[in-house]
Amino acid sequence: SLKAGIVGLPNVGKSTLFNAVVENGKAQAANFPFFPASLELVDIAGLVKGASQGEGLGNKFLSNIREVDSILQVVRCFEDNDVVHVNGKVDPKSDIDVINLELIFSDLDQIEKRIEKLKKSKAKDSQSKLKEESERSGLERIQHALMDGKPARSVTLTDSEKESIKHLCLLTMKPVIYVANVAESDLAEPGDNPHVKEVMNLASELQSGLVTISAQVESELTELPSEERIEFLNSLGVSESGLGNLIRATYGVLGLRTYFTSGEKETKAWTILAGMTAPQAAGVIHSDFEKGFIRAETVSYEDFVAAGSLAAARERGVLRSEGKEYIVQEGDVMLFRFNV
Ligand code: GDP
User: Fold this and answer.
1) How confident is the model at residue 42 (pLDDT cuts 50, 70, 90)?
2) Ligand 1 pocket, mutate which of 9, 11, 19, 90 (most atoms under 8 A from CB)
3) Separation in Å, CA 11 to CA 62, 65, 233, 296
4) Does domain 2-105+173-253 have CATH number 3.40.50.300?
5) Contacts by 172-175 with C-beta closer than 8 Å and gap 24+?
6) For 274-315, what is each residue's pLDDT tens digit?
7) With 90 as the cut, is the pLDDT of residue 263 above it?
8) Where are the domains of the chain?
9) What atom in ligand 1 is closest to the CA of residue 19?
10) Is the ipTM of this complex over 0.90?
11) How far apart are the CA of 76 and the centre of ligand 1, in A?
12) pLDDT band at 253; cut points 50, 70, 90
């Protein structure tokens, strides 16, 4: 399964969010099996200033990050005088800088060591030499970017450079999603909160994803009986819990998409790669579906939810017939017609 690591400074709401997401995930899977079980959240608490200095635990946190496929950084955007902020005030830019610097230091250290090693290399055959040259040129460009405070993922690399540096598992190469943790009063219009605005700007500058969520609301949702959840969410001006957004954003940065099939008994979620055509998406269920593909009755997620079922969607005229060239969109609900 894919791993997403939750990082962030102390007291930003990581544990609250982690526990709530795990609980909500279980609850939603039972009621509405829309969330595939293929995403695993890993709580990586303890990434603090100085982690890259190699002081015992710090190193361990960095190696935990090395193993995840994407990084979710929780950024505190809620004010609460009862919850101490490590730096004395809510300051998303500083929080993001602290974590980024640790990851950058760690990568720089690794790259320096690797370049030294490559310099001493006595590779003989021309193919190994070429490979090493490509690795070195890629690493040197990344080194410059890092010294400029930019992540490795912002550097454009050739395919062979990418391939040759893969073994280093650089931390700043991993996709990042900033999770702006807001007060419940900000959920409906998060952009009105200047802290969130700042995180939005940084996310686009650093080629990262963004989700706004209220860890506290997610946590309160786990305490409510399912009938009362929607009412509670509506009272805050939103229609669904943050879980869906979090999963969609994580899948998004990994180049993954989810589509659904909906029968009388159950609705199932399927994971595909971005850009897959309808027959390829059908092939994820069974290769016969791909081979015999004729067409796919398709409705968008929003239209499906509004209608309530495929039959109702058909009556409303929002069910489309899509052919072999159709690129499946995030959240599509599909019924495949195929020859056996
Ligand atoms: P961590 O250190 O990042 O894991 O932070 P925790 O999840 O332990 O949260 C630290 C404190 O902040 C706890 O007292 C939480 O109840 C509180 N907290 C977390 N999220 C929110 C939030 O969205 N709003 C408010 N007001 N408090 C929160």
Assistant:
1) confident
2) 11
3) 19, 19, 24, 48
4) yes
5) 172/100, 172/103, 172/104, 172/107, 172/146, 174/65, 174/68, 174/69, 174/70, 174/71, 175/69, 175/70, 175/71, 175/208, 175/209, 175/253, 175/254
6) 899 999 999 999 999 999 999 999 999 989 989 988 999 999
7) no
8) 2-105+173-253, 257-338
9) 7
10) yes
11) 9
12) confident
Pick the residue whose CA is nearest to atom 14 on ligand 1. 83
Instruction: Say which amino acid occupies 244.
Output: G
- Percent composition of the chain: helix, strand, coil (DSSP 3-state, to 5): 50, 20, 30
**What pLDDT, in 10s, does the model give residues 119-157?**
998 878 888 888 999 999 999 999 999 999 999 999 999
- For residue 17, the ligand 1 atom closest to its alpha carbon is 7
What does the block give as tokens for 45? 């608490």
Superfamily the domain 257-338 falls into: Beta-grasp domain (3.10.20.30)
From the alpha carbon of 182, which atom of ligand 1 is closest? 23
Query: What is the best residue among 216, 217, 218, 221 to mutate for testing ligand 1's pocket, by most ligand atoms within 8 Å of CB?
Result: 216
Q: Is the CB of residue 185 below 6 angstroms from any atom belonging to ligand 1?
A: no
